[in-house]
Amino acid sequence: MKTYHFIKILCLALSLAASLSAQAEWVDDHKLTDDAVYTGNLVDGQPDGFGFLRYDKGKHAGSHYTGHFSRGYKQGLGKWVRADGTVEFGEFDEGLWRKPKDQTFNPGDLIYGIDLSAYNKGVDLSQVAIYTDRNGLVHGDKASRADVKSRRYLQPVQFVYVRATVGSTDQDSLYARYSEQAKRYGLPKGSYHLLCYNSDPEAQADNFIKQCNGFKDDDLVPVIDIEMLKNQIAKAGKQNVPKIVDRFLRYFQKKTGIKPVIYTNNNFAKEYLDLARLKGYTLWVSRYHYLEPDIHPWYVWQFSENGKVRGYSRPLDLNFYDGNRASFDRKMRLKADR
Known about the structure:
25% helix, 8 helices
């Protein structure tokens, strides 16, 4: 009996050691079955960790899953998109989606996104999801705050913008890391530049373009962040603010052929910007209120700087795109033929 138990314990120990020593490898376009193609972490031939699974043939043809796996099963946070457009998003357990009780929305119908900079350290984009109410809302006056606080209902992050540069010389220390994460985890990503008023606008544009490799690696239209403190306005001169913006935009568009998205604060824009000259630009407006911006037409609303999300303990900026998927692709995605 003692010998038997010793051998049994030894076998279990060896089995555990073997499983612990199994190394994950990242594979691209790995043919998992006759129907399925996989990109992601693979352990002993099975998806384990983060990955992307698509079905090219069979009964699931046209469907794909992005998220976490364990021993070949969908396990943890993930998004399963069926060929008919329906979406299952949230927590999976051994391949099955656990739909929260009373959830009435189809995840992915609403387009929410986040923006990141060096101030947001430790964000893991494979884990971040947005808490909403049972109807999928977190913005506006119709969202149930009690539902949001319950942390039962989730929406996926549909896009992420990462700060690339500030002024003519500064480059964000986390830009490369979050850009790589977004690419690896299948998130549409764009870059933004914080415009300063104490350095040459053309030099700032060159700094932005260089840091972003001409935006060849981006999915989304670059953004120019136009806002400043009152002491900065006093130094620049209120009358010079629109001129500085004009110089940057003209030079940037000449160098890149891209018409950038304009990000600005609701009150700042009304007081200091020449909105008539910005007609035709896609506007992204911050207003931390349940009331939407009153600058029109806006397309993206940064409605909170204290957003609570799954997978990150600190607040994040939350943004809402006011339109459907076709509108988002038309306004926010970079054109492939530029």
